[in-house]
Amino acid sequence: MTEQDIIQRINAARLLPVVVLERAEDAVPLAKALLAGGLDVAEVTFRTAAAKDSIHAIAQAVPEILLGAGTVTNVDQLDAAAEAGATFIVTPGFNPDVVRHAQSKGIPIVPGINNPTGVEQAMSHGLKVVKFFPAGPTGGVPFLKALTGPYGDMRFVPTGGVNAGNVSDYLGISQVVACGGSWMVDPKLIAAGKFDEIRNLTAAALSAARAA
To answer: Who's near 67: CB < 8 A, 6+ residues apart?
Structure first.
């Protein structure tokens, strides 16, 4: 799958669930809940020790999910994610070493930025899509709108502070590919095994996103 194919899939979904899994055994039920709610993309973060095993489990059991690895901050995590079956990488910041490593391996990467300098770093590496993070604390919709002005060719995935109440505002910006968010995959719901609730929240979030 090419980078363009991956971005088109994420763009079609309009939402990129940011998933934190403490236990790998929750990975497949969570992925199936997302699919049942209508979403076929997900980002499993390297915030826990279960990340690699969780990615591997989903890649093997639920191949319908376009699966990325998030919160990747070094090349070792990137290699682990790729080995486990992640098809794209998302990072919280812009680390040139990680970006170059991903490009050398042919793995699409969406690095995090929150200012003009970050956008220009991404451009200098030939990137067309970046994560706007943390979106809310950085300035939210008004700041992102201002950022799109001088960078008309760059596209964004706002993440951090995006929720059911403001997702449509972000998606109303033409250069936004999709919004990253965790409200539909709350770790407390995952830990409690409330996958039916996750399915319902996902369906509601998707409905709101696609109406934007």
So the answer is: 41, 42, 43, 44, 55, 58, 59, 85, 86, 87
The question of whether 131 is a catalytic residue gets the answer yes
Task: Please give the CATH topology (third level) of the domain spanning 3-211.
Answer: TIM Barrel (3.20.20)
Residue 189 backbone dihedrals phi, psi, to 5 degrees: -70, -40
Is the whole model's pTM more than 0.85, yes or no?
yes
Q: Is 194 a catalytic residue?
A: no
CB 15 within 8 A of CB 39: yes
Selecting among 131, 145, 194, 197, the annotated active-site residue is: 131
Break the chain into its structural domains and give their ranges.
3-211
Q: What is the pLDDT of residues 123-143, one digit of tens each?
A: 999 999 999 999 999 999 999
Pairing of strands 112-113, 109-110: unpaired
Q: What is the crossing angle of helices 75-84 and 51-61, to 10°?
A: 30
